[in-house]
Queue: 2 jobs
Job 1
Amino acid sequence: MTDVGVAVGRVLFVMLFVLNLGGLLTWVERKQSAIMQDRIGANRASIFGLRLWGLFHPLADAIKMLTKEEFYPARADRVLFGLAPFVSVFCALVAFASIPFGDTLSVAGREVPLQALTFNVGLLYVFAMLSLGVYGVMMAGWSSANNYALLGGQRAAALMITAEVAIGASIVGVVMVYGSLNMMDIVRAQGAVLGGWLPMWGILTQPLAFVLFLTAGIAATKRIPFDMPEGESEIIGYFVEYSGMKFGLFVMADLLETVVIAGMTVSLFLGGWQVPYLVRDGFAFPWGAAFALPRVLVTLLQVLAFMAKVVAMIWFLMLIRWTLPRFRYDQAMRLGWLGLFPLSIANIVLTGGALLLWGPR
Amino acid sequence: MKPVQRVYLREVASGLVLTARHFFVNMGRHLAHALGRTEARGAVTIQYPEERRPYAPRLRSLHRLVRREDGSPRCVACMMCETVCPAHCIYIVAGEHPNPDIEKVCTEFTIDLGKCVFCGYCVEACPEDAIRMDTGILEFSSYSRGGMIYTKETLLSLEPAGPDGKPRSPVPIPADRTP
Ligand code: SF4
Ligand code: SF4
């Protein structure tokens, strides 16, 4: 019974965290861009005169999309056309499952890892799910029976492959340094301190991989500056023929992917749920001071730290989204294959050399 | 392109610093505003229906008919405006003025604003300074064509805009306008 309860609890926590964050991101996106551009942003939706800085706009958007007409093009493949948005959203949603949000917690005498899915190859699982997302996009492009949608789907597929290759290659360095494909182990290994005071976060041990991963990760989310698959304002993308909530699901999938990429970056490079100098039973500062805390409080701090890091990372991704102009298609391809990919390989070689010289035997 | 620009990273970083600075400065101003320092503004936005920027004094807005001391229209029904109007949207019916010193007056003066192009020629043409476009009222849209037709009584009742350029009369709603 407790097993079921614990499993449901873990899944529910991740699910609610990701889904709510994804829904909230439409608001964050509008407000953050507004503030960056000296505007106020959407603030008119209200319930009984209560506006709450436009927080009801996601709700209003959802109602609008649910009540809009669901249009099927005459020659579209109805099954695939209807399925495509759900494939996209599903893959983006389940990808978060193996990202740990805290250390183990004892529940009824058992040690429960705070992670929806305990998986030895969790890292590969996240990649697999992210890559599967491209099927939804291609299905949407192909089944719409619209040449522009088809071309958009092709561009999306090319971009995703470019991004996945670079992500996969850039992450190898991290795997080499921490010696595991299990996300929990990677995060745990980042709790070590280098030279007695420097937390061994991925961004310090693998700075090049961090930049490469982040760039490729942004490309994988198909958002500006890599939004040539859809190009909201000018070029026509793979979801031209979609309307109503199906269109909303594609937008949602992109936002969920942003959350997943933020979660991945935090777990691999920013120490995941680690708080500097916080160990199992309290703070242990490098200058000798120690500060005991109960286990539950430590776990709570870790979960909060993870959430705060994810939110900060999303803020940064949004900052990039609203700062940079779009890459041309050929520029993005050149960046991916002639920039990110060779640099990732070089990073692997460098990391290997460094590990041979100074690493553990 | 210089090689250092080809790597993008430095340019991207400088761009991010710029936009992030805007974000934090504006956030700080919003915060100061929320904490009571009302002169701090984090955005240049004017919240339109509640807040209005003053209109320029030369703005051509909704027409009004100027009144004499006794309240009768100053218009002497010379038909100059009707003639000059490029959109042919002024309709005047002339009649006797009760005052024998004044020859004529308009008994009906109708402007179809659905046709008006806001050229201001009617104001230019009037020898009596009887028609002006200085009410500062811009929001007089309507769901029906009939709702765009303004009669003499409505046009006479309007006041000129205040010194700050804001309208002093409410937007007149003709009887047959569906809201
Ligand atoms: S502004 Fe021009 S179009 Fe309008 S009523 Fe006057 S003359 Fe006619
Ligand atoms: S030009 Fe002036 S006086 Fe003549 S009809 Fe028009 S408003 Fe009246």
Job 2
Amino acid sequence: MSEPEESWWDVDAGPIVRSFARTGGRTRPSRDEVDLITLIVASSPDTARPGLEPEHIVILRMCTGAPLSVAEIAARLGMTVTVTKVLLGDLLDMRAIRTRAPVELAEAPDIHLLQAVLDGIRRL
Amino acid sequence: MEFAGFEPNPGSGDLPTAVKILIAGGFGAGKTTMVGAVSEISPLKTEETITATSEGVDNLSGVEEKNTTTVAMDFGRITISRDLVVYLFGTPGQNRFWFMWDELALGALGAIVLADTRRLEDSFPAVDYFEHRGTSFIVAVNRFHGTCDFNAEEVRYALDLDARVPVVMCDARSRESSKFALITLVEHTMTSQMSAIR
Ligand SMILES: Nc1nc2c(ncn2[C@@H]2O[C@H](COP(=O)(O)OP(=O)(O)OP(=O)(O)O)[C@@H](O)[C@H]2O)c(=O)[nH]1
Ligand SMILES: [Mg+2]
């Protein structure tokens, strides 16, 4: 493929600049910030994108429709969490998935959210 | 644009909020059993391969260790609503994998430490870890024989627990009993957070 941003590549800053260009300069979670329970959903049901490896396509099919956590994707792929995170990082770079990071309850107390969890467990 | 087919500015507001609760305790304390008792899916397993160069294994003193080890954690899910999903993680039984615990504990709502009264000391490391980290936790005493060797106060004393940490009796095989332990944990977390705000 010959996307314009390929010309941004240079030896020193190549991948960073390219990934910056691909995301239009928006910040997004880096691979390290993808948590076990970060939720993942495919941006589009279309898996006919250049650059997708078979594992990427399996992940995109899994996450079309209902979102899945990183842990669930790893368990279903039968791959380690580390390998799964790398594959998800590729998909993020390609903007083929969207993510939602978990709320950090320990760091940011949210009584309403806790109440919703409590009510939900009581209803089980 | 070459990004046709993808949203120009994807948000994440339509994805549910995910919350994490840990089920800890020594070997065979009933962690997987409790995850399975309340999860809507049968417990799944994720694995992490650790090489000898990882931090966790470096700390081993004088123990001959093969180059790679696999740490398994099992987990389950409770979908509370379209907007909210709770994941329950059984922590790895091997206490030496603290760095795995760090990822699990980060941002967690709290933890249930399962204690087996035949081997109470097996729950010391988990209690120490959550106390040290400031993670909200409760202790659930898993009664294996129905023989009540200890009551809640004796367990509290033996584990040297803060008076505010709830201790409940439970049977991890029972959905109702496991639900009760979870409810106690969430209430405890709410109480601690509200008193912290004041
Ligand atoms: N009687 C009784 N048996 C239990 C209870 N909870 C678990 N068990 C049994 O104890 C055994 C160990 O339970 P697990 O849930 O596998 O324990 P675990 O903590 O996941 O064990 P590891 O992952 O190996 O550390 C199983 O055979 C369970 O059926 C309980 O509350 N009462
Ligand atoms: Mg287990």
